[in-house]
Fold this protein.
Amino acid sequence: MNGELILRLLLAGVLGAIIGLDREYRAKEAGFRTHFLVSLGSALFMIVSQYGFNEVLNHPGVGLDPSRVAAQIVSGIGFLGAGTIIFQKQFVRGLTTAAGLWATAGIGMAIGGGMYILGLAATGLTLAGLELLTILFRRVGLSSMSINFQTTDRKNLTKVIDEIERKKYRIVSYTTQEERHGEVTIYKVALVVKIRQPEEATLFSFIQSLPDLTLTGLE
């Protein structure tokens, strides 16, 4: 029995590490070690939940719900996932990594519960969601683009907005700050736009071509 339980821990750790390698390759907040430990720990909690209280249950009048320990994994992993989410410059980063940790915990729970086929299938589907769907929808999906520029010509603001609307991009946020330097007014603009990835260079070139405009940041 102990040999099978150790095999469950090993398999859960390996499957978690495989998902973590994808995150490590993309230089995300949680890499293969974090995913390995999440999956291994989840499997261990499941095993303890299933078999760790057998001696206590043999006493008369004692009744325990073995699913309670497992239920705490689902809510507890949320705190770890929240630590990978970062809000910076109008962007929310780390959501996919947090969701990956949550899925990895589920895989560890499945393997810990002895549902090997389910755990292996979930690993394959998780990797497909992280990689294959990214490749498949790269050209049709939208990505966020942060644009910061400053100009002394107010008409440039209208030209940029008109170009974005003409191309049917979606403006997520738009802020303008005015600074007076003697008789000259400098308009500092911060834009976040949803745009198709292959078309990013087109918008970048258009903004750069405008006179009296300096691009100060692009992400």
About this structure: The mean pLDDT is 78. The longest strand covers residues 184-196.
